[in-house]
Specification:
Number of domains: 1
Helix content: 55-70%
Order of helices and strands: HEHHEHHHH
Length: 159
Amino acid sequence: MAPKRPSPWTRAAGHDAGAPASDTMVRPRPLAISLVLIAITVTAGLAVRFAHLGLPFSVVKYGGSGLWAVMIYWLSSTFLPSGRWTRNVAISATLGTAVEFLKLYDPPWLDAVRRTLPGIIILGRMFNWRDIATYWIAICLAAGLDLLIRRTLVPGRVS
């Protein structure tokens, strides 16, 4: 009797150790590339928000929010470098959404933190549903860019 072949669904989910890795598995991105991505994102985010570049308000508001979310993705994918890229997307989207909902909680000590420059940059000030959508879109775009980077700049095969 021939051994039972696993279904494509179990192979894709990574349940068959003998099967090739699924498309959600990625190899680690080199730390040097991660640091460059983080530096570019931070610089762009601070420039969009604080450099008075004459950009339209919506670009400043949502561009800054999107770059903040991209930064969360780069950090997540740097600290959890291998495994399923979907996990990093989920972690980043959850963290971004949680920080946005934290804006609805306003004890005096947290409001004092939010009035500082680091508090403004990290926590933000006012809740906005559109920010959540911006975070999710930006995180998905960053994940796509990350997969492209890993396929082109990182030696070896991405499954």
